[in-house]
Amino acid sequence: MFKNIVPINKEKHLKTKVKAVNNFDFVKDVHIASVMVHEFSRASSVYPIVFLEDQAKDQFKPVVLTGLEEGENLFVEGNKWDASYIPAIVRRYPFALAQTGKDSQYTICIDEESEFVNEEEGQSLFNEQGEAGEVIEKVKQYLTELQQMEQFTIEFSAYMSKNNMFTPLNMKVRVGSEVKNISGAYVINEERFNALSDEKFIEMRSKKYIPVIYSHLSSLAQIERLVAFKDEKNKAQKSENLDVIENKTALEDETAEV
């Protein structure tokens, strides 16, 4: 999704403008999207939520599945995102936060290669006096809120890992005549969750983790929805290809008659 993220600074981006995101072509090939626990309640009604292990950072990160294999996003159709909820990481594009190297210090960045970043159209990052424009102030506030949510997400995932709540996802689904294996991710083990002691359950409740867990577990039913979605798209594509072949054949017949 991001191609070339760089910190925003007045000298380099004085004339830079950002157009409103009016299409989602930039994520048409993205089959996963990071989410934070505050998004789970809404995201779970649309997408399966799973966890990916980042061994380098010794972390588990939640993501939503937008496709069943790399290179596909089943929710992007004709440059539009066809779903009732769009992950925050997509909505904040082309902006992002990056750690500066100091603990808890972040800077606002922008994807310079985004089609929405230019010097001709859109909202200016800086005014003529070189002061941060309204767009930067709004983005700063939004990204700061997201960063706070991300910290809570990190703490949640670390707690689940420490208490051995994660288990590998290994699931076979049938798409048309093909059987696909969904693996490489983790989910919270429902049996272990149900077997928690009263003390541990109360501890999780005090941390506000229980609703998050329920949203995650309920979201796994959306895998079947993805399968059905992919089936429909495959059938539509086959039908479209058949129409093209028939039209081509009809055109060749007409040409032959002439």
UniProtKB/TrEMBL annotation:
Superkingdom of the organism of origin: Bacteria
Pfam family, one: SapC
Entry protein name: Peptidase
Organism annotation: uncultured Sulfurovum sp
